[in-house]
Amino acid sequence: MATNRTFTMIKPDGVENGHIGAILEKITASGFRIVAMKLTQMTKADAEAFYAVHNERPFFGELVEFMTRGPIVAAILEKENAVADFRTLIGATNPADAAEGTIRALYATSVGENAVHGSDSDENAAIEGAFHFAGREMF
Ligand code: UDP
């Protein structure tokens, strides 16, 4: 995957709370092109693998439980400087610290249930995109 791509998920809380449309509107209005997208649900094994970097953290069990409780929207997004610009668009992990107007400030409810995921590096964007999508699903 080229380095102008990032990977995102609208997490189960964002889907449950009816924010898919508003979040996608904000993403596309901010200049990101949708390269791949689907509604899917992670299994426990999927979530444990996806968040393996956090498996020693006290919130790991809760995170896996949360991420598997309902469908998510997974997507690959393209834009110059995609990873950094998308992190700016979503805001801080904890919505209490997220800048005004960011997706997490608008739609997240807590540090755990924070509406969206955004890759934190080009390397992870490629790994995470490939975790959810086959090459033929990327356009
Ligand atoms: N998380 C949590 N409690 C914490 C920190 C993180 O439940 O104290 C969850 C939250 O859903 C977060 C995810 O774990 O988005 C991954 O954490 P990370 O620090 O990588 O934050 P992100 O990159 O998503 O902002």
Automatic annotation (TrEMBL):
Lineage of the species this protein comes from: Bacteria, Pseudomonadati, Bacteroidota, Flavobacteriia, Flavobacteriales
Gene Ontology molecular function terms on file: nucleoside diphosphate kinase activity
SUPFAM superfamilies: Nucleoside diphosphate kinase, NDK
Pfam families hit by this protein: NDK
Protein name in the entry: Nucleoside diphosphate kinase
Position of the signal peptide: none
Entries under InterPro entries matching the protein: NDK-like_dom, NDK-like_dom_sf, Nucleoside_diP_kinase
Needed cofactors: Mg(2+)
Quaternary data: Homotetramer.
PANTHER family, sorted: NUCLEOSIDE DIPHOSPHATE KINASE, NUCLEOSIDE DIPHOSPHATE KINASE DDB_G0292928-RELATED
Major enzyme class: transferase
Keyword presence, ATP-binding: yes
Compartments where located: Cytoplasm
Gene expressing this chain: ndk
Transferase in keyword set: yes
Keywords attached to this entry: ATP-binding, Cytoplasm, Kinase, Magnesium, Metal-binding, Nucleotide metabolism, Nucleotide-binding, Phosphoprotein, Transferase
Catalytic residue list: H117 (pros-phosphohistidine intermediate)
Family: Belongs to the NDK family.
Positions that bind ATP: K11, F59, R87, T93, R104, N114
